[in-house]
């Protein structure tokens, strides 16, 4: 059955959802008050997870591997140049504590048939010669990859347009109303000019602004803004072969105590640093790009002290980078859910309203499959996976009774 659907948000989730909806014959409109991929979807490091499907993939595996396959389809089958690189990712290990965490993690994944590898210092130097020789080793994900974030997000939107979707940028939502006879009316404004759109279903994929949209129809979407920030060197000769992460934060977060109203996996609590977080890669243009801080705020102001901590951390892992000062810095706001799980699916009590987001810092890596999942739910297509852990359910609160 053909439907008319509006997707609010032209990030990686919204663009992917629009492509799936359009491919299935729906009449799709995508609106965004900015440009395609102008927020977190285009401001990240571009890392894409892998690890393989394993023997009995759950929804978390499907979000990662399904997204990787959608990127591959976008590049290989649809012909979009997103600079997709499938050389893998290394999570670097500095301490014995990190090594024990990594061993437990890899053993657990390998027991389910996934293909993460724990490599020692010598093997690491073969894989990534620039790494500090004192490192104990790394977790190697040979199926992971990376791509150019803005280009990839725009490619999903372009592919959706080819399938008939209408993507409107500079078009903000000013009001949202459920109609008594069924369906929704969405008020939008383009260049200050108001207009109305009537649709059968609405997908809120507005990142950290999802709650702002939800409140227009009396719902509280438990997603908050978390600032991430990154830095890039000037273009360098090729030195990094893989996507890079550090084990320090993941090891720390395993023992983290949850705090009400605060999402998990932050680097700071109450203005105090709790851990360092690091990930990055080398772009095709030679820039070395890294980032990592996770601060609960909607203030985009760059914390130069945090940039310095991240730069120093990179220098510990790659001594040759220590003297390569950042040539540019930037920040963005990521959508963290309060319970740490994605939010995907219909909102109870608001028929025809769907939410897709809350992907925290892995939106680029899990966004394409999140978009596909929510699009399938809109169209009533039964999923091959148990989505119970990510469904909206009672996690979204009705605030007007």
Secondary structure layout plus pairing:
Blueprint: E1 4-8, H1 12-23, E2 27-32, H2 40-43, E3 47-48, H3 59-77, E4 89-93, H4 96-110, E5 117-120, H5 121-127, E6 137-141, E7 145-146, H6 149-162, E8 166-169, E9 171-178, E10 184-190, E11 193-199, E12 201-204, H7 210-214, E13 219-220, E14 223-232, E15 243-246, H8 248-253, E16 268-269, E17 272-273, E18 279-282, E19 288-291, E20 295-296, H9 304-317, E21 328-337, E22 343-347, E23 353-357, H10 363-378, E24 391-393, E25 397-398
Parallel strand pairs: 1-2, 1-12, 2-8, 4-15, 12-23, 22-24
Antiparallel strand pairs: 3-7, 4-6, 5-6, 9-10, 10-11, 13-25, 14-19, 14-20, 14-21, 15-18, 16-17, 18-19, 22-23
Task: Report what the structure shows.
By secondary structure, the protein is an alpha+beta fold. The chain has two domains: 4-81 and 149-221 and 339-398, FAD/NAD(P)-binding domain (3-Layer(bba) Sandwich); 89-142 and 224-337, D-Amino Acid Oxidase, subunit A, domain 2 (D-Amino Acid Oxidase, Chain A, domain 2, 2-Layer Sandwich), CATH 3.30.9. It is 28% helix and 28% strand. The chain is built from ten helices and 25 strands. It has helices spanning 12-23, 40-43, 59-77, 96-110, 121-127, 149-162, 210-214, 248-253, 304-317, 363-378, and strands at residues 4-8, 27-32, 47-48, 89-93, 117-120, 137-141, 145-146, 166-169, 171-178, 184-190, 193-199, 201-204, 219-220, 223-232, 243-246, 268-269, 272-273, 279-282, 288-291, 295-296, 328-337, 343-347, 353-357, 391-393, 397-398. Helix 1 (12-23) packs parallel to helix 10 and helix 3 (59-77) crosses helix 10. The two termini are 32 Å apart.
């Amino acid at each position: 059955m053909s439907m008319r659907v509006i997707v609010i948000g032209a990030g990686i989730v919204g663009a992917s959802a629009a492509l799936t909806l359009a491919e299935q014959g729906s009449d799709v409109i995508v609106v965004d008050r900015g440009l395609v991929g102008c927020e977190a979807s285009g401001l990240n490091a571009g890392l894409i997870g892998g690890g393989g499907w394993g023997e009995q993939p759950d929804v978390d595996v499907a979000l990662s591997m399904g997204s990787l396959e959608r990127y591959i389809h976008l590049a290989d089958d649809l012909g979009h140049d997103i600079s997709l690189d499938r050389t893998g990712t290394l999570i670097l290990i500095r301490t014995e504590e990190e090594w024990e965490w990594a061993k437990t993690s890899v053993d657990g994944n390998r027991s389910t048939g996934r293909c993460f590898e724990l490599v020692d210092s010598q093997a690491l130097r073969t894989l990534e010669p620039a790494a500090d020789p004192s490192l104990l080793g790394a977790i190697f994900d040979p199926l992971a990859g990376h791509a150019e974030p803005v280009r990839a997000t725009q490619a999903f939107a372009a592919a959706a347009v080819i399938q008939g979707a209408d993507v409107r940028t500079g078009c903000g939502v000013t009001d949202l109303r459920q109609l008594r006879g069924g369906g929704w009316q969405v008020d939008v404004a383009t260049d200050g000019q108001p207009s109305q759109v009537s649709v059968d279903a609405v997908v809120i994929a507005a990142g950290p602004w999802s709650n702002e949209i939800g409140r227009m129809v009396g719902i509280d979407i438990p997603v908050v803004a978390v600032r991430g920030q990154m830095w890039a060197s000037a273009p360098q000769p090729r030195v990094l072969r893989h996507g890079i992460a550090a084990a320090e934060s993941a090891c720390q977060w395993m023992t983290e105590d949850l705090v009400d109203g605060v999402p998990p996996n932050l680097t700071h609590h109450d203005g105090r640093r709790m851990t360092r977080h690091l990930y990055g890669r080398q772009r095709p243009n030679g820039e070395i790009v890294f980032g990592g801080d996770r601060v609960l705020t909607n203030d985009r102001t760059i914390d130069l002290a945090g940039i310095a901590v991240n730069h120093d951390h990179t220098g510990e892992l790659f001594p040759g980078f220590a003297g390569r000062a950042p040539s540019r810095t930037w920040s963005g706001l990521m959508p963290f859910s309060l319970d740490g799980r994605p939010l995907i699916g219909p909102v109870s009590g608001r028929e025809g309203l769907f939410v897709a987001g809350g992907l925290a810092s892995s939106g680029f890596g899990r966004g394409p499959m999140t978009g596909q999942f929510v699009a399938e739910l809109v169209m009533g297509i039964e999923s091959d996976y148990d989505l119970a852990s990510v469904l909206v359910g009672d996690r979204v609160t009705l605030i007007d009774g």
